[in-house]
Amino acid sequence: MLGRPLRRTLPLVFASPHSGRSYPESFIAAARLDPVALRRSEDAFVEELFAAAPEFGAPLLAASFPRVFCDVNREPWELDPGMFDGPLPHWVNSSSPRVGAGLGTIARVVSSGESVYRRKLSFAEAEDRIRRFWQPYHAALAALIAETRAEFGFCLLVDCHSMPAHPAQAGNPPDFVLGDAHGTACSPRVTRAVEESLGAMGYRVRRNDPYAGGYVTRHYGRPRDSVHALQIEVARPLYMDEQRLERLPAMAPLRRDLGRLMGNLAAMDWSFLR
């Protein structure tokens, strides 16, 4: 899903890679978990939180398919050999930390740690998903970045996510975590501007802890090439019931505040990124 502004006025691209909720019937049939358990891996409703981006002059790209089916915030071929009924090609990345955690391009487990599938998959199934879903998403994202850089001379990619409540953070949980790969994927001035804007609205904001940015942030964030990438994680309890996967009334004011954030970004002088 791609929302385009009537006129491009901002050197920004917004993306929501994990909010898709269109589950193929064949995938549901192969899964050992019920649909609600599968959906708990979603960054549910994030594309709605940032839906105003085109009104402020920036495109919004959102995956329609779920991350548990194909995760576009991973390398294209991060696959767990234990999930498959035969050997994988030698060029597959089967030893990354994400694969070890069961969260490769094709996830072995959901966020709660439960196994997704009732059977082994074939490599052909994984290849089909990567070619039909992962590659088109990244082709669209790369095209938007290139288009933006061609028009403005630079681009800021804002990669939008949500984060679950965590017991370890119960005392002082952040409302937002900004990930710039510890200053390597994005100009510090951009991160600081977003941090200050959210902080002025009363939100608790952290940088890079515990989310410093995934594949998208680190792959596309290349300030030397005039492309900056900032990951934004929004705390789910701010806007949704995590157990029932339902929007809370508080979602409306959060959307308004994110609209204010976008308005603040629209008012910035971006010439420092040239």
Could you describe the 3D structure shown?
- The chain has 274 residues and is α/β, with parallel strands linked by helices.
- The protein has a single domain (2-66, 122-273), classed as Aminopeptidase.
- Helix content is 31%, strand content 14%.
- The relative contact order is 0.17.
- A 7-stranded mixed beta sheet has the order 1-3-2-4-7-5-6. A two-stranded antiparallel sheet has the order 8-9.
What is the quaternary state of this protein? single chain
**Main β-sheet, spatial strand arrangement:** 1-3-2-4-7-5-6
What is the number of E strands?
A: 9
Q: Which regions have little confidence, pLDDT < 50, spanning 5+ residues?
A: none
Spell out the CATH superfamily: Zn-dependent exopeptidases
CATH architecture descriptor:
3-Layer(aba) Sandwich
Tally of separate helices: 8
Biggest beta-sheet profile: 7 strands, mixed
Which radius of gyration do the C-alpha atoms yield? Answer: 18 Å
The proportion of strand residues reads 5-15%
Number of domains: 1
The SSE order reads: EEHHHEHHEEHEHEEEH
Principal-axis shape equals globular
**What share of the residues lie within helices?**
25-40%
Distance between the termini: 29 Å
Quick check: average pLDDT? 95
What is the C-level CATH assignment? Alpha Beta
What fold name goes in the CATH topology slot?
A: Aminopeptidase
SS-derived structural category: alpha/beta
